[in-house]
Amino acid sequence: MFKHNLLIIYRNLKRFKSTFFINLLGLSTGMACALLIYLWVNDELSMDKFHQKDKQLYQVYMHHEENGQIRSAPPVPALLADVLKQEVPEVITAVEDTETNDFGDGFSLSIGEEKVKARGKFSGAEYFQLFSFPFLKGDGKTALSDKSNIVLTESIAKRIFGTTDVIGKTLEWQILKFKGQAQISAVLEDLPDNSTESFEFVLPFSVFIDDLMGKERNHWGNYIALTYVELAKGTDIDELNEKIAPTIKNKVEKTNVEPFFKKYSSKYLHGKFENGKEAGGRITYVRLFSIIAFFVLAIACINFMNLSTARASRRLKEIGVKKTMGASRKQLIFQHLGESITITLLSLGVAYLIVLLLLPQFNQITGKYLTINMGVNLFIATVCITLFTGIVAGSYPALYLSGFKPVSILKGKLTTSTGELWTRKGLVVFQFVISIILLVAVWVVYSQIEYVQNKNLGYERQHVIKFPIEGTVADRLEAFINRLKGVPGVINASATTHSIVKSGASTTGVTWEGKYTDSNILFEQARAYYGLIETLGIEMKEGRSFSEKYGAEEDKIIFNEAAIEVMGLEDPIGKKVTMWGNEKEIIGVVKDFHFSSLHEAVSPMLFHFDKSFMLNIFAKVQSNNVESSLAGIQALYKEFNPGFTLNYEFLDANYQAQYQAEQRVSLLSRYFAGIAIIISCLGLFGLAAFTAERRQKEIGIRKILGAGGLQIIQLLSADFTKMVVIAIVIAIPISFWTTKSWLQGFAYSIEPEWYYFAGAGLAALVIAWLTISFQTIKSIRINPADTLKDE
């Protein structure tokens, strides 16, 4: 029987070639999309989950209450880790850490005169006992136990020494004007792709506190560290968060900050907060593309259902004869399901070929290194996708065809039921609803990205380069910047600790006369050199910026408008504030500018003059002289820093990199929307061909009676046009709600315009007309005499 069914399947595939190829193309394309999205989603869900202590590994965040709103962020005082270890029994281990991106490419490692740029950070002694990064050499328990230790990754060890057998060897590290000798205590394997950490070496955190920051700056008002903890098994995280909330309030009088624990491996996908509550993050895109995969696959299945039921009349005699010979409905259902699963298996093979061909380009778009490794998870996913597609695609045709009465079939009295027609039309409407929603989403996402990239941020980012301060430049900063200003094509130059495009260091250590006694405001803080405001084109609202004309400016400070508003100061120029115990005079207020992502509203910020600790130099260059200006800057840099390589970035590129996820979503959405429409049109093409075929005699008679080509086109396309119009009516409110919800993730966003929805609906209608017109024109061109001949 199995062999017989296979033979029937083969004969039917040969007999209905056009239907078979439409189904094969639609199903294989839909399954390829689903497989690509599965690979991407699986990789996203696996981020940071490889650590052995994942279930107990948490990061400390802080709630900052400001103006009735709660802002949540991970930087905390470096003092907090020891307090948690000593005072919270549920905390087994607490480790201080710094963000790798805080130092960017400012680190260099060297043996002798050769300098190698590397990404590094500072971490507590128990860091490698919390995080499961595999070691090639050395012991994670003691790797950072001594202040003179350094841990390298495999790649950086080979770049510097040409080998990983480097335990006990010494090298020199340098960041800014700070440098020291370190002995290699361990070598790590290169960090896995599904790790959010991206360092190449690690130094002890004690070096950061003692040598870079200075112990006097390590206080409760300075948020300079990240803190990770291992919690005891079985800990109720909600109860523990309530317990630790007053920890800092018990140490500092009149503060409005509360620490809480957040699962470390969840921050990648659930990193966004709104008013103290988790509000999504990258998980939004995981859900979005999972839904897209489901709907693209569903559209392909609908094509199969519609074409199979539409062409049922061609197989009625086969079904009637089988039922007359004793075939049960169950046997017929299994036969048709077997047929659909067979086509699905063939489509799966084609889908894997498509995936293999497109995977390099898909990796380039997503920025990942996805591969097809047929492990248990991928095998299960493939089986599930295949069975789901085969059963869903074949279920309705199988139930529909097997339900006919043999007497009616063999007498030729079978007519198409109203329910069948409505089901088929409803499925076509569903296809186009999804296609229109995707079209609107593509348009809105693209427009938002354009808005983000072109919005006036309150500072000039065009033709501004940024590079790290290192080597002798850190010791001779004033001389270097003065010489830099003299390079032909350089308009202005300055320095700061801040990256300008994203949040950096912050502090609550600011007090002023009239401050509410029960509140601590979290200020974004940037150390600034002379001319920073002018170099970046930040507009002064009142007062002045830091300038050499006024001599030493260490006792001066500048706030943004948001800070002055939160502080409740009127006529702030000349007023005094206290920062970290030092009195400072307000000399200026800058207009609010976006120093972080447009996902966030502008928050309070301050600039204070401190040339002893700078991270980045910014230089504004002429737009018509960029290449020669860069050559001049590189020559000057080499003069000051022999052996160093100038690694510069354009500020505009830094800014756009923040929206890489949105840009990738925009691009992928365009591809998937296009695929959904193509698959929908394949089904429409097949139905239009079938309709034209069934009405061929009617068309011949109408032509003989004088009907023109346009009238016949209108006749054949009327039903399909109605279906697409109904889809437009259903899709517009759904797409409006969907895009509006997505835009709420931005503090500054576009408003969805009416023409986004009208344009998407019109595009779907035009595409449907073009698809149908091909078949109708083909039918019109047939000679009526040929169609009216007796069979």
From TrEMBL:
It is a multi-pass membrane protein. Residues 291-402, 672-784 form the ABC3 transporter permease C-terminal domain. Residues 21-245 form the MacB-like periplasmic core domain. The lineage of its organism: Bacteria, Pseudomonadati, Bacteroidota, Cytophagia, Cytophagales. The keyword Cell membrane applies. The keyword Membrane applies. The chain crosses the membrane at residues 20-41, 285-307, 332-358, 378-401, 427-446, 671-692, 712-734, 754-772. PROSITE patterns: PROKAR_LIPOPROTEIN (PS51257). Keywords: Cell membrane, Membrane, Transmembrane, Transmembrane helix. It comes from the Bacteria. InterPro entries: ABC3_permease_C, MacB_PCD, Macrolide_Exporter_MacB. It is found in: Cell membrane. This is ABC transporter permease.
